[in-house]
Design goal:
Blueprint: H1 2-21, H2 24-27, H3 32-147
Helix pairs in contact: 1-3
């Protein structure tokens, strides 16, 4: 905005210099074709000054837009870093839980095998207990028969 004002002031000063060269004092010494050329050059200067102002305005808006885009890009990059950190934490938690599940599954398998072994021992003890009960019962009945 400062540059834009500076350029406008310079353009106005150029116009004044050109106008002063075409003032009534100098008119007597200039021919009509010279005056035409000066007028043509003055109009071209005015036209180019206007175009320069438009271009500077466009450049200003472009730079402002670029600054906004760069700010948004910086914000998105910052967010990307935060999301990457969160993703790494979640991946670690997932891996940790998977390892925990695997460990618990192995422990469960061992406990199930141990249970199967204990179940077979229990079945053996129950069979032995029934056999002992039958043996004791048969001895009692033998003693009862002898006692008669």
């Amino acid at each position: 905005s400062f540059d834009l004002q500076k350029n406008k002031i310079q353009a106005q000063q150029k116009k004044k210099m050109v106008k002063s060269s075409t003032s009534s004092e100098n008119e007597a010494c200039c021919s009509k074709s010279c005056k035409k050329d000066i007028d043509s050059l003055n109009s071209k200067i005015t036209e180019l000054t206007d175009k320069l102002g438009e271009r500077e305005n466009m450049l200003f808006h472009y730079k402002a837009g670029l600054a906004r885009v760069e700010a948004r890009l910086a914000k998105h990059r910052n967010q990307e870093v935060k999301y990457c950190k969160k993703i790494r934490v979640l991946e670690f938690k997932t891996e940790s839980r998977a390892n925990c599940i695997e460990s618990l599954t192995k422990e469960l398998e061992l406990i199930m095998k141990e249970k199967e072994g204990l179940d077979s021992k229990l079945a053996g003890f129950q069979t032995a207990s029934k056999d002992l009960d039958n043996l004791l019962e048969s001895r009692r009945s033998d003693k009862n028969k002898e006692g008669l």
